[in-house]
Every structure is written in structure tokens, then in C-alpha cells.
Amino acid sequence: MSFVGWLSQPAVLPWAALVFGLCVGSFLNVVIHRLPRMLDREWRAQCAELAADGAPATPARGTDEAPYNLWTPRSACPGCNKPIPARHNIPLVSWIALRARCANCSMRISTRYPLVELAGGVVAGYAALRFGATLVAFGAMVYCWAMIALTVIDLDTLLLPDDITLPLLWAGLAFNLGGMLVPLASAVIGAIAGYLALWLVYWAYRLATGKEGMGYGDFKMNAAVGAFLGWKMLPLVILLSSLVGLVFGAVQMFAARGRWDAGFRFHFGPYIAIAALIALFWGAPILRWYAERL
What we know:
The protein is 65% helix and 0% strand. The protein is mainly α. The chain folds into two domains: 10-132, no CATH class; 134-294, no CATH class. The longest helix has 39 residues, at 13-51.
């Protein structure tokens, strides 16, 4: 039996996917940390060009001249700025072995890093268990990894970057060209309806209150969900995300001793992500259960 054939065995595939997902989760930590900073640098450069009447802005010596992207520079400790060697960058294992501290300066390493790695591994392993050695499983993994990154970035910055939402939307349509998750027509309608559903809510709230209740990134994220799962799953996703948001809002009020914190900033992206993952893996049984009780 070839190595690929061995990996595709039902008893091996989920564990192999788990390990692979842990590695992807490590990369997701890089995306979560760097992508917002890359966007901020880009926006600042654009503002500088506009301030200079369109003339290219010249960065000050020693400031933004060094390349900064998802690959460069190497990951380093934020405390001592020493590059992290490969042996200290093994998903989960290194964090446990180092007792959650930098090997050089003993600065504490946030628990969020191993949690993101673990989430990346768990969703990959479950997708492989659920869908087997198929392109559907790989598409589900990509979908889940994007949701993890969007969730944490939104919690950190209130941003849902186009660099993730738009490629995810196109990936959903591409995966459904052959009807792997849903027919292509359902995916296209889902992308359109996913965007318009929250766009209409946004404008209804804005016209009623004069305030913005959500950002455009939420529309695009919901459109990507529709592109992957089709239009039939959108009511379930919107309902579940609203219920999850309501629960977290109630927790927020309880933490504020029964009063709504006027400074509270609502992050709708994580709630969409939670609902989207539920819909991916358990949406069909939920809809069947509901239809049987109509």
C-alpha cells in the first residue's frame, strides 16, 4: 500500500488531518497577528500618498523599509525580539514544553496561541472524519480555518479583512462548481442572499437609529457562508448567530450588573462563524428535524 493510500484509511485519516490542522493553526496565529498590521501599514501609506497630493510617500529611514508580510520576518518573541527557532515552534508541544514562557526572556506566551492551533487541528480532524478522503473534506477544512482566523481578528480589531472574506467567497463558489456541498445555483444565490440579508439589516438599523450596527465585513463573511453552504442554510445561520449574539449580549449586561455598557463594541463575526460551523456539520439534520415537526 502506498503512503497516500495508507493516509486515506478511515482509521488514519482523521489523525493525519488533526496533525496537519495543528500546523495550519500555527500559521493562522501568524495571519491573525500580522494581517491587521499589514493592512494598517498599507492604509497609512495610502494616506501619506494622498496627503502628498498623490506623490509617492518616502518612508523615514529605518521605519517601514523592512518587508513585513505573512512570511517575513521570522516569528520572534514580542518581549526580547529574538527569533523563535523551529524546535520552539511545534504546535501545542512547544507551548507545553516551555511551560507557556519564552525560552530566552521567560515572557509569558498567551494561551490563545495553543487554543488557535488546537481549534485548527480539531476542525480538520472532524472534517476528515465526517467527509472522508474527499475534496469536500478539504473544502470544509479551508472554510473552518478561515472562520477561526476571522473570529479572532474580529475580536481583536473589529475587522473582517477582505483578504480573507473575498477569497473565501470565491473558494466557496469554486468548490461548488461540481456540486460538492450544494449545487452551483444554490451557492450563487446563497452568496447574493447572504450579502443582501445583512445589508438590509444594516440599513434598516441605520435609518431607524442613525448609527451603524455592523460593518461591511459582516456582509461579505455571510456571503462567503452562503457561497459554501447554499441559500437554504442562510436562515439557520442568521437565526443561530442572532441567538448566540443574544446570549453573549446578556452575559455582557450581567457583567455590567444589569446595565448595558454604552462603550461595548459588538463583534458579529464570531457569532456568524459559530453558526456557520454548526450549519456545515449539523445543518442538514437540524433542517430535517425542523421539517418533520412542521
